[in-house]
């Protein structure tokens, strides 16, 4: 019996070792032009090693790897990160049962990551745009807080949610049935009330008798400590200034989304270190809050020292993220700034590892056929956490199905 157990244990050990060796395959991407997204800038003729899901080294002295991918001088970048969309929460907007991005009442405790669908048909299509990660956000609800954003990788695996509670999403500005002052006042009141609770608790020093804070109180404490970003949707300049005042009063980690009029207060935003998320293609007013929407806004904010992030919003269109960045470049933004707006700036704001091509960072990498911001460029190869993933989408499968003449009825091919 002992001999039998020894044999069993040996077989198990061999199986584990074998599976580990496959998972831990080391890959060298050679002869590439690397847009690092760091102070190193652009490296030509570079070699990047992937080891155990991370970037092991750049230009090592020797290449002792399991497999080599010849980059043929093509461009290698960090995978793009798409912020503030409903990827995996909304499949068909017109079908109510496939919409999970909003709760009727919403609120700061709403965590939509529980409804995330890693098998959404929109995920492979987003990969075709070079996107390896997404910051998925809730929308709507009756409360000023829509809920919590979460971070996913686009591997399509069931464990692809990497971080829940990555940010708190809140909406400000004009409303059809209320004053814009109500939402700003509500935020101020909630923060003030929670701060007084924290101060009273610290003064009384009765921790052993205190009740466990509620989920809402824990999240508000996270905002007050600057541990959780507050993503505030606001476009009008006066609303933005009120939010900056609240940031300075309570020490918030504040970022703006859809800030069409942010250019009007760009100096104040830069001084307060408040990032701005824009749709780079918004060039016409959508309402009276966005009278200064322009294709030049991203470049103007960058020049003023504001950290810029690009968002598309619609989960069906995040494939276009790199095109939007390319348009921003043509209207005055730097190439480095545009790259950071879809990689490292997003990672920094939401506390995501990666966003740059540097040793020790997750191996979320994209090898492009040309300039990633050119419309004719395609993704040649993509890695997510060191694993090569396909860019074949539902659209590709439909194309192949209906262009193939094999085993088709006459009506399909004549």
Notes on the protein architecture:
With 414 residues, the protein is α/β, with parallel strands linked by helices. It has a domain at 80-353: Alpha-Beta Barrel (TIM Barrel), CATH 3.20.20. The protein is built from twelve helices and 16 strands. The strands form two sheets. Strands 1, 2, 3, 4, 5, 14, 15 and 16 form an eight-stranded mixed sheet that branches. A hairpin with a 6-residue loop joins β1 and β2. α8 (321-330) packs antiparallel against α9 (335-341). The longest helix has 25 residues, at 180-204.
Secondary structure class reads alpha/beta
What share of the residues lie within helices?
Answer: 25-40%
> Beta-strand level of the residues, as a percent range?
15-25%
Provide mean pLDDT, rounded: 90
Order of helices and strands: HEEEEEEHEEEHHEHEHEHEHHHEEEHH
How far apart the termini lie comes to: 70 Å
Radius of gyration: 24 Å
Keywords:
alpha/beta; TIM Barrel; eight-stranded mixed β-sheet; 414 residues
Summarize the SSE layout with pairings.
Blueprint: H1 2-23, E1 27-35, E2 42-51, E3 54-58, E4 67-70, E5 75-78, E6 80-85, H2 122-127, E7 131-136, E8 145-153, E9 161-171, H3 180-204, H4 215-224, E10 229-233, H5 237-250, E11 253-257, H6 266-272, E12 276-278, H7 297-304, E13 308-310, H8 321-330, H9 335-341, H10 344-350, E14 365-368, E15 379-384, E16 387-389, H11 394-403, H12 410-413
Parallel strand pairs: 1-4, 1-5, 6-7, 9-10, 10-11, 11-12, 12-13
Antiparallel strand pairs: 1-2, 2-3, 5-14, 7-8, 8-9, 14-15, 15-16
Helix pairs in contact: 3-4, 3-5, 8-9
